[in-house]
Each structure stands twice: as structure tokens, then as C-alpha cells.
Amino acid sequence: MPETTEVLFQRYGPGYRWLAMFTAMSTTISAVLAATIVNVAIPDIMGAFGIDQITAQWLSTGFLASMTGTMLLVDWCMKSFGQRATMLFFLALFLAGGLLGGFSTSSDTLILSRILQGAAAGVIQPMAMVSVYQVFPPEKRGAAMGLYGVGVVMAPAVGPFIGGLLVDGFGWRYVFYAGVPMAMIGILLSSMFLPSGATAPERPRFDWIGFGLLVTFLVSLLTAFTDGQIDGWRDTWVVGRFAIAVTAFATFIWWERRTALPMLQIRIFLQPGFIGAGIISFILGAGLFGSTYLIPLFVQTIQGLTPTQSGLLLVPAGLSMICLIPVTGRLADRYEPGYITGFGLTLFAISFFLLSYADANTDFLTLAGLIMISRMGMGFIFPSLSAGSLRLLPMHLLAQGSSTMNFTRQLGGAFGVNFLAILLDQQTGFFQDLLAATQNPSNQVTESYLQQVGEMAAAAGLSDVQQAAVASEYLSRVILLQASQQGFHVSFEVSALTFLIALFGAWHMVRGRKRMNRTEGD
Questions:
Q1: CA torsion, points 82, 85, 86, 87, in degrees to nearest 10?
Q2: Are 4 and 195 within 8 A, CB to CB?
Q3: Sorting pLDDT into bands at 50, 70 and 90, what band is 92?
Q4: Helical residues (DSSP H) of 136-207, grouped into ranges
Q5: 292 neighbors 160 (Cβ within 8 angstroms)
Q6: pTM of the prediction?
Q7: How far apart are CA 520 and CA 229, in angstroms?
Q8: What whole-number distance in Å separates Cα of residue 137 and Cα of residue 140?
């Protein structure tokens, strides 16, 4: 006999819903924590394996891309294998990925571990939300989801700080072990408190063709962008993968509109204003995950902060967002969500624009304040975008709308990290060549610098040859540091511009809502 929620309520009494809530939060926190905790360890990992930041960004991009793909498997897995069995399998996969990462001896194995963890997280998170939703009555679901949401938002807020403590105290490998205890707790609790769920009499059909096209599109495009920066954008294999990606994407749209059981409802974007919400969701994902990748890298490479300090830098911003979301949620119920979303996007753009002026001398509190502005913007965007996007849809499309918004946000995160990493590397190389070209005997500043370093080397008892080598090495490091700083400046500026462009999406949401009101009035 399947252990349904009714059976579990009879076994554990009214308190069962809180056992289910704790189970859902423990599984989700382990998955959400893994998405951001690794970012503060990236400089150490780059040094350990001798990889550049283009390769290192796959630790984040691989996680997000695989997560994007597998979140569309949730409904099919639950109907085919049951709720409990599905959760236990993917928690075990998540656990295996964490252990593989911690014991990795190569960067390829490390990236594979992140792909496995991302694939598991893509199923764990939406399933946890389902388990909360099904144990609370309709009149209490809002409060329950709010409590669940606080736990979910808290994980990425404190995750980088916890990761920093682990890196500084024990080494980078321990950030991969961090999710293991929570995953083990999640396995134990899920085996006890999740309903087994009744499987369908016949295994339902799944849109494997659509899924295959989506995976082909993601893998082809992301790897083409990465290898294009290394092998050249005119490389035959790079151009070929771009062509494959375009073909796969066009075929995916055609197939999803044609098939009787689409994996993703493309027609939903034809609803007035919804495409604007989709644009914002994509850019929000890019900004959220892109900034959590870019900021720790900036403060560790440019400012010389420790991983713990870089993680601590993000804590006030995360806490401010947690405090703000309940207030902005009420505002979204009372006022036009498109306007509130637009205000949040503007705050995000201002934050990145100001960050583009940060340098090695910017103090800790100033940086924390600038980052807080972006997270306050996110606090305005999240509830208003969720409420506003679903208000644009008829009742029978609400479920598809919710899953589509989650999908576009994760997709934006994968592309955002990939794009920003490539842009940073490209701009750093550009400014490095530009600065190197000015280092000649006629440059008095350079000559004075080389002389000062040479005198310091002479005072240490080095020979003339050694003095010249030390001075040249120091000059190369200074040029690289200045070039990296300029690269970060451009990356932050482009991010700010992207959020300003997203204001078009907010305008489209408002316009779509007005069209719906006129239609309902007629």
C-alpha cells in the first residue's frame, strides 16, 4: 500500500506537516548551498590545478546548466517512480557528486562532480516545494511557502561565508563536503516523512526529443563560447557548434509547438506581457548567479581578501534581501508589479554601475553597501515578478507559467556566468596588451619603477641579472593586476547596462496587464 500524505498524517498526527516542512528545507538547503558555496574557493582551485578562469567558470556554469535541464524531469519522474523514490535517488546522486568533488585529482573530475550535483539539484528543489504545498491547507500555504522561502534565501546568503571559513580553515576540498551532512539528513528524513506516491498505471510519455534538443542546445552553445575564447571565434569546430546550437534551438521551438505533450509550453509566451516577464527572469538569473561568481573573484584577486572575508562581504546583502521580501510581497499585491520590478531592476543597475568604479583601495564597508543595493533590488524583483507574471496568465496556464519562470531564471544563470567569465578574460587580455605596449624606455614612470625595484633587490644582495629579472617580474604582475581591474570594471558596466535593457521587459509586463484589463472589461 502506498504511503500517501493521508497515511502519514494518521501515523504522525497534525505535527506531520512540520516534519514534512523540515524535510523539504533540509533537502533544498543542501542543493541551494551547493550553488554558491564553491564560488569563494575558485581562486584556490585555479591555483591547485593550474587552470584559468575560463575553465574554472565551468564549476558554476556546469552546475547551473545541468540544473536547468533536469528540472523539467520532475513531473515525469514522480509519476513514473513515485515521490519518495525520486527524491532518494537524486539526493544520493547529489551526495555522490559532493564526495567526487572533494576527492577529485583533476579539474575535469571536479567539473563532472558539479554537473552531477546540478543535475540532482534541478529535481530536488521543485520536489521539495511540492512536498510543502501538499501538506498544508490552501489557507495556510502562503505562510508555509513564506517560511520555506526564508530558509531557501538564507542558504545563498550565508553560503559564501561558510565556504570562506572552510577554505581558510581546512582547504578548498571541504566546500564540496559541506552539503554532504545535509544531504544525508535529507535522505534519512525523506525515507521517513515523504509520501511514496502512487505511480501511474502506465509510465507516462516524456518529451525525450525536446529534452535531447534542449541539452544539445545548451552544451553546444556554452562550450562554443568557452572554446571560442581559447581557440578563436573562426575555428571550424567552434563555428560548427554555434551552428548546431542555433539549429537545435530552432528545432526545439518547432517541436514543442507541434508535439502533443510538450516539455515546455512555448505558446505561453504568446500571452500578453508574459514574454517581458520571461526576459526579466532570464536577466535576473544572469545577474544573481553572475554576481555571486564575479564579486568573490574580484575581491580576492584585486583586493587580496581571504575567502572568509569575501564570503562575509555578501552576508549583509543577503540578510537585507530576506528582511525586504515580506514588505515587497505586500507591495506587489497592492500596486502594479511591473513598476515594482522596474524599480528593482534600476537598483540592480545602479549597484553594478557603482561597482565598476571599485578598485584595490575601495574599503570593505563601501563594497558591502554597493552589493547590498543590488540585493535590495532583488528583494523588489522576486515577489513582484512572481506575482506579476502569473497574473498575466489564465488559470489553466498557472502551473506552466511557474515552471517556465523557474526554467528561464536558471537558464539565465548558466549563460550569465559563462558570458561574464569570457568577457572578463577577453577584457583583461585586451588591457594587458594595451598596457604592455606602453612599457618602453621612453616611459619615465616605468623606468622609475624598475629602478626602485632594482634598488630593493640590490639591497637584498641580488646580482645585476637577478635584479633585472625581479624588476621585470614585478612589472608584469602590476600590469596584470591593472588589466584585471579594468576587465572587472567593464564586466560590471555591461551587467549594469543589461539590467537597464531589462526595463523593457517591465514595460512589457505593464502593457500586457493593461491589455488584459481592457479585454476583461469588454
A1: 120
A2: yes
A3: very high
A4: 138-169, 174-177, 179-193
A5: yes
A6: 0.78
A7: 51
A8: 6
